[in-house]
Amino acid sequence: MLIKAFKEWSDQNEGHIEILTPTGKTTALNRFKPGASEDKIKDLSDYFSTPLPPDYISFLRLCNGASLFEDPEYGGESFLYSAQDVIHYNEASDNKIVVANILDDRILIDLERWRSQDQDYLLLCESLNPVEYASRFYSNFETWLDRFLISQGEKFWYWKTERSFEE
Q: How is the chain split into domains, by residue range?
């Protein structure tokens, strides 16, 4: 997982990293919580009455929640929830569980897709829309998180391209 190398890099300077933005180089701050205990992970699986995807569990074992790409002075709005937060923000009966909030967009695990062995089980719920309006993300947690890190905290899912091929 890329998150492990990213966390090690961030930890070298107390969470501060330098990133490139459209306005030039800037400093961002990453805050990682200590990894979740096996008891916390079991509590999470028990709460939803199903094992959760292994890539998501690996994330929780490494860091039980994180705040990424914060402005050192003003803070940030990219939160990956801890196991306890996931329980707090979701009902046990939910089949679509919120695991992250990225600048008002919510990232969800679709437990029905996961149970049916669909490897692209992640959903996106934009802004303040109800979870019922979440749409397919065509990704799993690890792929989404890798892309989020590589894009330096940008909402890459809104990047649009148009391709035309001339003959």
A: 2-151
Residues 40-75: tens digit of each pLDDT: 999 999 999 999 999 999 999 999 999 999 998 888
> How far is the C-alpha of 42 from the C-alpha of 48, rounded, in Å?
10
Residue of 90, 11, 95, 86 lying closest to 56 (CA atoms): 86
Strands 16-21 and 24-32 come out as antiparallel
Rounded to an integer, what distance in angstroms lies between the CA atom of residue 18 and that of residue 152?
10
Q: Which CATH architecture has domain 2-151?
A: 3-Layer(aba) Sandwich (3.40)
pTM value is: 0.91
